[in-house]
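Schema walk-through. Below, the input block comes first and the output block second. Nothing else is stored per chain. Lengths vary across the set, and this one has 134 residues.
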Amino acid sequence: MKLDRVAAHHLLETVVTQAHTLGRPVCVSVTDERGALLAFTRMDGAPIRSVKLSEAKAYSAARLGVSTAAFHARLEREGIPAAYFADPTLTGLPGGAVICSESGATIGAIGISGLAPSEDQEIADAAAAAYSAS
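--- output ---
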C-alpha cells in the first residue's frame, strides 16, 4: 500500500470538510513516507504562518515515525531542543500524524496548522487513523 497524490488530495478534502464544520480555517499538508510534500491546501483565512507549519508537522511525523505530539513529549521529557536532531525542518509542535499501511509501516504523514496545537493534533490523528483503517 502506497500513499499517492490522489489519496493525499482526498485527505485534504476530508480535513477541509471537518474544519468547515468547526468554522475555522486551517492549512493541511500531506507527505510521503520520506516527508516529501504530496499535497497541500490553505483554506481562505488560514494564517500565513500555518503554511510552513503544516508542512513541517507532516514532514516531522513522516521522518520520525511518530506524531509531533509524541515528539514534543519526548523533547520535554528529555529536556532537549528539536535542533539537536540536526534537521531544521523538524518541529515538536503538535499537529502532525503518521499515516500507516495495514501492516503498520509508515506510508506518509499529515500536518494540520491553524487551530490550537491540541486541536490540530486531534484532526491530524483522526484523518491519519481514518486513512490507515481504509
